[in-house]
């Protein structure tokens, strides 16, 4: 696996400072991320190990209660957000989220799933499924 990029190092630093309850510094790192990458990533976000934000997370927006698993690949301009008070998404391990995708509400994205570019996901996605469209529909489920 390649070296973590600047945004992931910044997020890990922000999480470390937040968990150690060091005042002000997590917010400074958050603003650094916002200015340098145009990304809105809350200080208390939960991101698993091995997760990669491609293109330095350009334009990504994450809900503060979103849970992101391990080894997830997130392309640019992805939104993991709420939906009229219906919670935040939970992303499983080894998921790929394509450019411009919106994953909205308290839904669960299963392990090894793939979300196509510009998809709007408002329903749960099973393990190993490929989804796309507006609203996203299951295109296929890999049985490998």
Automatic annotation (TrEMBL):
CDD domains: LbH_SAT. Keywords: Acyltransferase, Repeat, Transferase. Gene3D superfamilies: Hexapeptide repeat proteins. InterPro entries: Hexapep (IPR001451), Hexapep_transf_CS (IPR018357), LbH_SAT (IPR045304), Ser_O-AcTrfase (IPR005881), Trimer_LpxA-like_sf (IPR011004). It holds the Pfam family Hexapep. Transmembrane segments: none annotated. Belongs to the transferase hexapeptide repeat family. This is Serine acetyltransferase. It comes from Chryseobacterium paridis.
